[in-house]
Design goal:
Distance between the termini of chain A: 90 Å
Helix content of chain B: over 70%
Largest sheet of chain A: none
Strand content of chain B: under 5%
Order of helices and strands of chain A: HHHHHHH
Low-confidence stretches of chain A: none
Radius of gyration of chain B: 18 Å
Number of helices of chain A: 7
Number of strands of chain A: 0
Shape of chain B: globular
Largest sheet of chain B: none
Strand content of chain A: under 5%
Structural class of chain B: mainly alpha
Number of strands of chain B: 0
Number of helices of chain B: 8
Oligomer: heterodimer
Radius of gyration of chain A: 37 Å
Structural class of chain A: mainly alpha
Order of helices and strands of chain B: HHHHHHHH
Distance between the termini of chain B: 54 Å
Chain lengths: 106, 185
């Protein structure tokens, strides 16, 4: 339902005669407590880390570290040992899996 | 040197008594400005404290080109708008989390705000008006609140918002027109 122009004007004028809201007492004490908290070492560290630029820089450093590890790592060290088919009898006998398989059959 | 200038000089030298005088003098003004923007008493109280903490920490950068009250209004409005933005971001994030089934509270219909300073028989209309004010763009909202609730003149609002008087006149004109359109629906 649409409001009439009179109603709208009444709503617009509803703040006429408004008085100031009062803050709770002892604001100064609470402000001082907050200042002390902010001036403490832990408070300073938290505030420093909460800065968007610092947080973004930390994230970037972690990502760059990861990228460096992935791309610069020694490829030889990353190679996984591959199982090869034993060519000689002695190789077969040295193969643990073969021995285990024989034990299972027995 | 006026008493205000003297007070600022004393605070710059780290005088605790001068800071207490500033907090005691301006606490209601700052609290009221924050309350009109964030519409929550606890948040407004918290923000008012933050404003005074910032005043204490950055008083040395205050050059005295404007009145202390103007500077306080500027800090209070900036902090309150930042708080509102953070709250909206949290609300959006909470909604996304709720879609993925995580336990997040999404406030669908926030309760009506009743300003403690509004005349009793106008409380209902004022609550409707506060809801409509919320839908205005930030600069129109601040200009309207400073004028209608804080009772500042166009000159004072222009100093707080660091713009010209004609810009404030235009902002308030547009704010009233937009409010009429919002209230018509």
């Amino acid at each position: 339902m649409k409001r009439s122009t009179t109603d709208i004007e009444k709503i617009l004028n509803s703040l006429d005669g408004i008085v100031q809201a009062e803050a709770r007492p002892f604001m100064f004490t609470r402000v001082m407590a907050r200042l002390q908290e902010e001036n403490s070492f832990s408070g300073k560290v938290v505030n420093f880390l909460k800065r968007p630029a610092i947080a973004a820089a930390c994230l970037l450093a972690v990502l760059l570290g990861n990228a460096y590890t992935v791309f610069k790592a020694d490829p030889a060290a990353q190679e996984t040992p591959q199982a090869s088919i034993p060519s000689t009898v002695s190789d077969v006998l040295q193969n643990d899996n073969y021995i285990l398989a024989v034990n299972d059959v027995n | 040197m006026t008493s205000e200038e003297l007070l600022i000089e004393q605070l710059k030298q780290g005088d605790g008594a001068a800071f207490k005088t500033i907090v005691d003098t301006y606490q209601n003004m700052v609290y009221n400005a924050c309350l009109s923007i964030v519409k929550n008493e606890e948040d407004a109280e918290d923000l008012a404290q933050e404003v005074f903490v910032q005043v204490y920490q950055s008083i040395k950068s205050f050059k005295g080109e404007s009145k202390l009250s103007t500077w306080l209004y500027r800090i209070a409005t900036t902090k309150s708008l930042d708080h509102e933005r953070k709250k909206k971001r949290k609300k959006r994030f909470g909604f996304v989390k709720s879609i993925f089934g995580e336990d997040a509270q999404v406030e669908v219909n926030p309760p009506d705000f009743h300003h403690p300073g509004v005349v009793l028989d106008q409380k209902e209309n004022a609550a409707i008006l506060f809801k409509a004010i919320d839908k205005l763009p930030d600069n129109q909202r601040i200009a309207f609140i400073l004028n209608k609730i804080e009772g500042l003149s166009y000159q004072e609002i222009s100093e707080v918002m660091q713009t010209t008087i004609s810009a404030i006149e235009s902002l308030l004109h547009r704010a009233k027109n937009n409010l009429r359109k919002i209230l018509e629906q």
